[in-house]
Amino acid sequence: MHSFRSFWIEPVESITSEDLESRIHVLELLLNLYECEQARRSRSSDASPDDAPPSDTVGGESVRDTAARLRGTSVAQNDEKLLDYNRVLTSKPQTKADFRLRNYLMALLRLVPPEVVGLVCLSYTTRHLSRQNMRWKTSMAQFLVNNQDSLFLPEVRKVLPQGFLDVIRPQWKDVVLHHPPLQNSQLSSSDDHVILLRVLALLGSGGFPVKVLHRSSLSMAWNAEGQPFSQTHDLPLVLQDESRCEIALKRLQQNGYLSRHTDELDEEHVVVEKKVRVAFDDDADHQALKVLAFMLVIYARYSKLLLPAFEYVMSYLDEAAFVQSLSSFQILVVVETCISASYFREIEWKMKIMSTAQKLLSSFDYLIAKARLRNLALKRINSTFDHNEKPDLPKTHLHFDKRSNALACQVSLFEVQLLQDKGKHDEALRILEDMAPLDSDNVSALEQIQLDEAILRRGKILRFKGCFKESLLCFEEFLSSPGRPRIVGKATSQLSAVMCEVGKAEAAVGFVQQELTLLKEFGEGLQSRNAIRLRMALAEAYLMADIQKPRTRNWEYALALFNEVDKELSQSGLARVGKMVRFRAKVGIAIVHHVHGGDVTCWDEAENAARQCGWGTGHSDMIISLAKCALAYQEGNIPQADQYLSQAAAVFEQSGRQYHFTGLGSVWHDYLLNQIATVLGQDAERLGIINRMN
C-alpha cells in the first residue's frame, strides 16, 4: 500500500489516481472493521448507546489511532491538519445502528479531505446501507452536496466509473437545490454557505453590500406610543454572526458562486456569478426565505445601492403564496419600505410602488392613512395635480394614539403645504398653531419629529411673508434646541437665508462654513443633498454680502460655487427639486454678471431654467424682466427697456414681492429699482411705474 505519510495533507491538485485509490482503501478498511464490530454487537439484544464503548473505537483501537497507524504517522503530528466535520450531519439518529454509525463516522470524517469523503459518502448512500438507514443516507447525501465541486475535479473523475456522473448528477442536483430547515436549532455552520447562497439568489444577481449581511436586527418601526423599536427576526445564524457570514462568503467565493469587489466609496459588494435555482421541500420555508430576502433590502444607509435588489424582490409581491406568508408585522415593514422607496427614482416608479403598498393593506387603518397621504404628496408634485380641488385628507381613518396623532400632525403639515402653494400663509399658520402632542408632559419621539417640522415650516412661512425677524427667531429656536441633530442642512440653509434678508450676510457666510465643516467631519460627500443645500446657501450668502457691501471678493467665491452646482446639475432628467436648485444657481450666476459686467445672456439662461421647473408666469419672470430692463436702459435701448418694464409691472400687479429665494424679492429687487431709477433721472412717468413696484 502507498505510504500515507506525505500525501495525506497535500493540495488536491497534486493527488494522483493511485493516491485516491489508496485513501479510499483505508476508508473502506475502517468501515469494514466497523461493520464487523457492529454485527457482533447487534447480536446482543439489550445493548444500548449508553452501554456501548466509546463511539470512536473499533476493537479497542480508536479510529484516529487506526488511521494514524495506517498512514505511518502519529496523531499529534496531524492534529492541526485534520478537518472539522463534527457538525456536518444534523439528523438525529433513530436506531442504535444509526447512533453508532453516525458517531463512528463523525470521528472518521475529521481525518480525511472532502473529495475522498465525498466518494465514500456517495458509495455508502448507494450500496452499503440498508433501506432502514435512509435517514443516514440523506445526511450523507447532504454532506456530499456540501462537497459537490470535488466530484468534478479531474483527479477525482479518473477513479469514477465511466458515465457515473451522468447517472448520479440528476440525483444530487435535486438535493443541492433543496433548502435545509430555517430553524436555528437545526442549523450547523456547515449549512451557512447553502443558506447564504439561496438568500443572495433570491435578491437577484446584482451587486449587494456585504455590510448588509452583517447585522443581527433587520428592521426598525414606530410603536403605538410613537417611539422607535427594533424587531428581531428569527434569522439563520449566518446572518447574525459576522464571522460565520465571512466564512460562508469565502467558501462560496472559492467555489466560484460569487465574486467580491469594492466600489469607489470603499464599500464591498458581492455578486452571484452562477445562476442558482432554488427549490424547497417545504413551501413555508421557501416563503420564509423570500420574506428574509425582502427584509434584507431595508437598510437606510444603503438605500440607493439596494434599489436594484429591492426592485428584484418586489416581484415576489405579485405571488399570492408569498403575500399570504407575510405576518402582520412583515406587511407593516413591507408597506413602510414601499413608502420609503417612493422617494427615489422617477415618478412612474414612485406611483407603482405606492399602488403595490395599498394593495397589501386590508385592515391597517394607520398604514392606509399613511399610504394615502404619501400618494397625495406624490400627486402634488405631479404636474396633473389640481390645487383648486380639495383633497380627501385621511384624518378620519386614524385610531387616536400617539403614533396616530403624529400622523395627524403630518397630515396637517401636508395641508399647510397646500395652503403655501396657494399663497394662503395666514391660514397655514393657524393650522400650525393647532398642532400639539397628546401628552405635553410625555411627547413621543414620532410626535416630536412632526412638531420640529412644524417649527421649521412656521419659520419658512414667516420668511415667505417677509416677516424676517420672526422667522429668524423660529430657526434659532430650532437650532438651539438640545435634542436637534448635529447636521440639519434644511434649517441651516433657511436660517442663512433669513440672516441675509436682515442684513447679516457676512455672519451667514461664517455660520454656513461651520456647518459645511461639520458635514465633512461626519463623512458626507459634497454631492449629498445636505452638502448641495449648504453650498447653495453659502453661495447666496456670499452674493448678498457682495451686494450689501460692495468692493469685496465675495462675488468671486459666490460665482465659483454657483458654477460648481450648475455643472453638477447639468444632466437631463433632474427631479423637481434639482431643477429648482439649478434655477437658483442660474439666477446667482446672472446676478454676479449683472453687477460685474452687465451680461444679459445669463438672464436668458435663468429664464430657460425657470421654464424647466414647470412654473407659470410669476415672480421669477418679473425679476428677470426687471433685470433685463435695467441692462437695456444702461445700454440706451429705450424701446426694449420699456417693453421689459411693462412686462415686469404687469406681473408685479399679480404677484407682488415674493421671498421664496434668498434676496430675490428684497435685496435684489431693491437693487434693480435703484439702478433703473438712477438711469431714468427725472423721467416722472417711468419713475411712477418703478415706484408702484416698490
How is this structure best described in words?
By secondary structure, the chain is mainly alpha-helical. It folds into four domains: 12-175, no CATH class; 177-326, no CATH class; 476-568, no CATH class; 579-692. Helix content is 60%, strand content 3%. The chain is built from 30 helices and seven strands. It has helices at residues 17-42, 63-71, 75-78, 96-109, 114-128, 134-146, 154-158, 164-176, 192-202, 242-254, 283-296, 307-314, 320-325, 328-341, 347-360, 365-381, 402-421, 425-434, 445-465, 468-480, 489-501, 505-521, 529-548, 554-568, 576-595, 601-612, 619-635, 638-655, 667-680, 684-692; strands at 57-58, 61-62, 208-209, 219-222, 228-231, 258-262, 268-272. The strands form three sheets. Strands 3-7-6 form a three-stranded antiparallel β-sheet. Strands 1-2 form a two-stranded antiparallel ribbon. It has a two-stranded antiparallel ribbon with strand order 4-5. β6 (258-262) and β7 form a beta hairpin. α1 (17-42) runs antiparallel to α4, α15 packs antiparallel against α16 (365-381) and α18 packs antiparallel against α19. The longest helix is centred in the first third of the chain and has 26 residues, at 17-42.
